[in-house]
Amino acid sequence: MLSIEKKLLGFVQKHIAVLGIACLLLVSAVIRYFLLPYHSIDYVASLEVWYENFRSFGGWRALARDVGNYNMLYRTLMAALSYLPNPLLAIKLPSVLFDYIGAGAAALLAHEVCLQAGRTRPAARRAAAAAGIAVLFLPSVVMNGAMWAQCDMMYVTFLLLCTLFFYKEKYVLSFIWLGVAFSLKLQAVFLCPALLILYVVRKKFSALNFLWMPAMLEAFAIPSVVVTLILHGNVSEALRRPFDIYLRQGAEAHIASSYPNAATWFSGAASTFEWNNGTYRFIECNIIPFFRTGMMLFCFGVLGIAAVWLISRRVQFGAHTTLLLFIFSFYTCLIFLPGMHERYGMAVLVLLVVHTAATGRLAPLTACMAATDTMIYIPFLLQGAMPVSMSTLSVFNIALYGAFCFAFLRELRVESAPPVQI
Question: Each residue of 97-122: pLDDT tens digit?
Fold first, then answer.
């Protein structure tokens, strides 16, 4: 063997882990590259239309108008991107970029969880690499940005940063990142029940930190307010717009959207029923608000009972159970609230991946969750039939939620058990 070959093989052997990660990153980029030309329904019917509206209204000047139904942070981003010539790449590339930023945030979070759980630094580095790579190759993450042109990984990234800085006990930064996530997606509030429980249990941060959420929401409306002032528009309307957008989203008049949860079973019953050989439709009647209100109250009841039980038992959440509490909070809202869309499960799935990478536990549950999310995406992206019915999938997802709750309770018992005396 030539000396140069020995040196080359020695280099490869010494840095095999880094080279392996680099190869996987390259593969993930190639996959996304081939998916970029795809035109999804959301892109054609909404995102491209918004992009063209921003261009026709003058880019930044369009911020004075009510374009699209996403909030001001995303609208400001789209106003900047509207100056680029290719709308498909302008919309998709930021989302794909956040796939990698989010994977990095997931890796940092897994590393921190491992260190706080008492694992060695080499083990923490392995867990971080596993979490980051796994997130990049999750089918729903790959399809969401590169194929669907959606931005869910953006707000999930900020939720990961919120969780990371919460672990580091840098609470102001944690809530600022939560506010950034909230400025992108209303669903960021699903993390708040867990934070409220930890506020009572730990007594380490002020409730005033929650004000960072509306503060950041309004901060990202500043460009819109400035443009409105310049164009002599209605400034008070520009100031209210971030909150009005979320009020409109929260008032959507349907029970089940496209996420398999408890609402799936109520949507059919609330839509129609047979009466005198005809079909009586409830769509415009008052039954849907009753169903929606009932489901929201039930969800709040589940979260309230869980909070009372955890607080009354003075549970001191450790490295593993703190992350599980965040997942429980988000997952409970997904399962019991009405109007949940198919993409909302991404935050739960990514947090589960981080937990599995950091602890080596719940791998079957995480795999089942990933498969469920993938099946939900198929009819929307490929215009094909769902592999299984939504009703069947909702039963499966509710069973997964039950299995997760059981694992959460088991982990709480393990962490609260007294150390074994030797």
Answer: 999 999 999 999 999 999 999 999 99
Q: From CA 254, how far away is CA 163, in angstroms rounded?
A: 32
Task: Give first-to-last CA distance, the chain, whole Å.
Answer: 55
Helix (H) and strand (E) counts for the chain?
20, 2
Integer Cα distance of 296 and 119 in angstroms: 40
CA atoms of 270 and 20, how far apart (whole Å): 52
Do 395 and 350 contact (CB within 8 A), yes or no? no
User: At a CB cut-off of 8 Å and minimum separation 6, what does 112 contact?
Assistant: 164, 167, 168
Q: Is the sign of the CA dihedral 106, 87, 75, 230 positive or negative?
A: positive
Residue environment code for 72-109, b if the CB has 16+ CB neighbours within 10 A, otherwise e:
bbbbbbbbebbeeeebbebbbbbbbebbbebbbbbbbb
DSSP per residue, 337-362: SSS--GGGGHHHHHHHHHHHHHHS--
* Cα–Cα distance measured from residue 32 to residue 195, given in angstroms and rounded to the nearest whole number: 35
Q: Three-class SS of residue 273? A: strand
Smallest CA-to-CA distance from 38 within 131, 140, 149, 122 is with 149
Measure the CA–CA gap between 115 and 124, rounded to whole angstroms. 6
**Spatial contact of 338 and 131, defined as CB atoms under 8 Å apart:** no
Burial of 378 (0-12, 13-18, 19+ CB in 10 A): middle
Cα 114 to chain centroid, rounded: 22
Distance CA 405, CA 269 (A): 28
pLDDT, tens digit (0-9, with 9 covering 90-100), for 339-378? 898 899 999 999 999 999 999 999 999 999 999 999 888 8
Q: Quick one: which of 149, 158, 163, 166 has its CA closest to 185?
A: 158
